[in-house]
Amino acid sequence: MNLIKYRSREILASKLMVGFFALAVATVSLAQTNLTVLQIQADKVTAQMPPTFYGLMTEEINYSYEGGLYCELIRNRSFKADAIPEIIKPDTYVPDKYYLAKFPATNAPKFWNSIGNAIISLDTNTPLNAAFNVSLKLDASSASKSSPAGIANGGYWGIPIQPQTVYQVSFFAKAAVGFNGPLTVGLESADGKTFFARAEISGVTGNWKQFKTTLTVKNVKPSKENVFKLTTASPGTVWLQQVSLFPPTYKNRANGNRVDLSQMLKDAQPKFLRFPGGNYVEGDYFNERFNWKETVGPVEQRPGHRSCWGYWSTDGFGLPEFLGWCQDLNLEPVLAVFAGYTLKKDYIPAGPKLEPYVKEALEEIEYVIGDAATKWGAQRVRDGYPNPFPLRYVEIGNEDWFDKSGSYDGRFAQFYDAIRAKYPHLKIISTVGNEHPESVRVHSRTPDLVDEHYYRSEEEMESQSYMYDERSRTNTSKIFVGEWATRVGSPTPNMAGALGDAAFMCSLERNADIVLMHCYAPLFVNVSELKRDSSGKIIKGGSMQWSSDLIGYDALTSYGSPSYYAQKLFGIHGGDEVLATAAKNLPTYSWMQKARKRDGVEQSAVKREAKSLFYSATREKRSGKIIVKIVNRADAPQAVKIEISGVKSIAAQGTATVLKADNRDATNSIDNPKKVVPVTEKVKGLGTRFTRTFPPCSITILELEAK
Ligand code: AHR
Q: Ligand 1 mean position to 58 CA, how many Å?
């Protein structure tokens, strides 16, 4: 019976294949006179692929670190999530001073619940240290064996429990006179039906002390609907701070990163990491910038800050951890320094008042590359990183085209001169790219690179994917496309997004003589709490502050969007040399560009024509293999005649790796993570001249063996 079913399916499939080829052939013969031709000149190298071409861009947004890559499982471990935001203007702000956060008088800390008859509150009278002027007061005066009192934390939308896993628990505690302990820490299901692990801690006294223990989970099913509990059966009062729970981290690095997400990044073979932002480097106000000095040293001395994306950062994921991430994945750091301008448009113009920030940037560079004999290099060593990092690129600020005061040129020059004088080997990046008017670009110095950002619709991205071919080759500043994405699909992009991305990446590769590096953004989104509008559309809010992010996850699992797979395909098939290409009869489509405002200029709606086929060709030096990338964004198959000159022969057999979907809305999700993934197959009929039909909505990587 099953065999019959199988056979009839096979017959149906082969009929469909015949139909498909008939359609493909029909397309070819109908368009025979206008056959699309891609010519590759294998003996003409137009650029060396920069070794750091594909990278990552990241910041604390969408619960990327806390609630994402950073392994801390306790949400609001520092009890500062209730901090009352304070606005400090630059004229009164003192750069080296730490401004203590203020807290509401009464309430229990966010994301913590009381257990039994416990009364919990934020207490600013029992500070742990200068950085932690607040603690959690646990009044357990009515605790007993039959009714323990304590606190519970549900993590970032759940606490992931994995089988056979050892969790590290740590916290600071002190007790009021009369408390005789012990405290019990444990992991259990949120419904209270399953206990996974428990440990007891005694020795809490009237002085703050750190306690550590482990919780070992046996052979259970993975789950995330769980809580962490800290309780006592002894009556009394206890204060707590830095309550922390860590699962094993990637490469077992202390204070390290989530294993599945790190592995997913590693698989895409990125070469650099641009950090710490993005808007995150600027902050809304001066006292909310990424103040790197407050993010180094032991985590219990890092005060944390409110980030521009609307939630508290403990800064447990600080400058050392960005470097740790680079170390984990062998990434080159690309460091963005705060440049005296914030998102709410506060700024300090060039001159003596900017000097402390220039000094801060020099010290930050010293932290990254200084040896143990330097002040900040020694701090990095103390933070667990004995070797200097291979820093080559420093970016001055972020998106300073927003600065309408005209101060960027001067601010850039002041940072540029100081960095160049002390570290002549560093390449200095301006945050204003050529996509912005001349008037806002840097003129007083020549930036080594300019950072261009493109967040676009699929059609816009495809329309601009031949723009770099026309860019001037005489400009001395190279291009860093430091943030870009085709923003279609939420929380993560769909196949349309991947097609726009791949079209753009073809253009970046073809133009690797002027584009030195690029990175998609944002990288991560926690998809646990998605908000919808009345029509059901996923909108910003909850665990997502920015839609269309490369990789999605919840507390337990993760997935790559079709765009992630496009990045991965391009990243691992980059090649070493860009080959000259030319195309004839590229198919086109038309689309309506909506009315919009760009750089303050109103643009009315306009009908536009864009190519629907995109390509690039590179070569792997070692093997001589030619890598041809073809993106067919159309809803119909497209035949392309590929002509390769400058080689003796191309083997008839090669490989095709194809990322495609039935339609451009197709996507991956936390519940259906592998709907759109690349498939690799052996292909025949290749040569120095061959015609191949590329499926609708597809990205194809052809690997050709050349002699
Ligand atoms: O990637 C999200 C944001 O987009 C970045 O923080 C900012 O640089 C850009 O505007």
A: 9
